[in-house]
TrEMBL record:
InterPro entries linked to this entry: Glyco_trans_11 (IPR002516)
Enzyme class: transferase
GO molecular function, one term: galactoside 2-alpha-L-fucosyltransferase activity
Protein name, entry field: O-antigen biosynthesis glycosyltransferase WbnK
Entry annotated with the keyword Cell inner membrane: no
GO cellular component: membrane
Keywords: Glycosyltransferase, Transferase
The EC number(s) this enzyme carries: 2.4.1.308
Annotated organism of origin: bioreactor metagenome
CDD domains reported for this sequence: Fut1_Fut2_like (cd11301)
One BP term from GO: carbohydrate metabolic process
Length: 127
């Protein structure tokens, strides 16, 4: 699961939709409904925020102190992906070679409703 905050919270808050707990909790529930014995690896540019908000979730591991390319590599090795509305998340899921992967993506990518979210493959589950 990738959580993008950082510059989205301040600099780009008028451009990108900031994903809330509802999105992430629904995505986690979807994956856990389809898969058994799931471990959730969390990657974020604000890992402290993620730890504070998701610490009570069962079988969760917060991945911290990696370089960004290491995080992307590790994201690509996960069985499934829950992505944020960011190109970094998108690439982590795209590079995942698991033929049976489930990728959960936000239905709403941009704040401006007129901007279409056409970069998501049809196989991605939009929540």
């Amino acid at each position: 699961m990738h959580i993008r905050r950082g510059d989205y919270v301040n600099t780009y808050s008028n451009y990108y939709h900031i994903l809330d707990d509802t999105y992430y909790l629904n995505a986690i529930a979807y994956i856990r409904d389809k898969c058994t014995n799931t471990k959730l690896f969390v990657f974020s540019d604000d890992i402290e925020w993620a730890q504070n908000n998701y610490k009570d979730i069962e079988n969760i591991i917060f991945v911290a102190q990696n370089k960004s390319y290491e995080d992307m590599y590790l994201m690509s090795l996960c069985k499934h992906n829950i992505i944020a509305n960011s190109s970094f998340s998108w690439w982590g899921a795209w590079l995942n070679e698991n033929d049976n992967k489930i990728v959960i993506a936000p239905k709403k990518w941009f704040k401006n409703e007129k901007m279409k979210n056409s970069i998501l493959p049809k196989s991605y589950i939009k929540i």
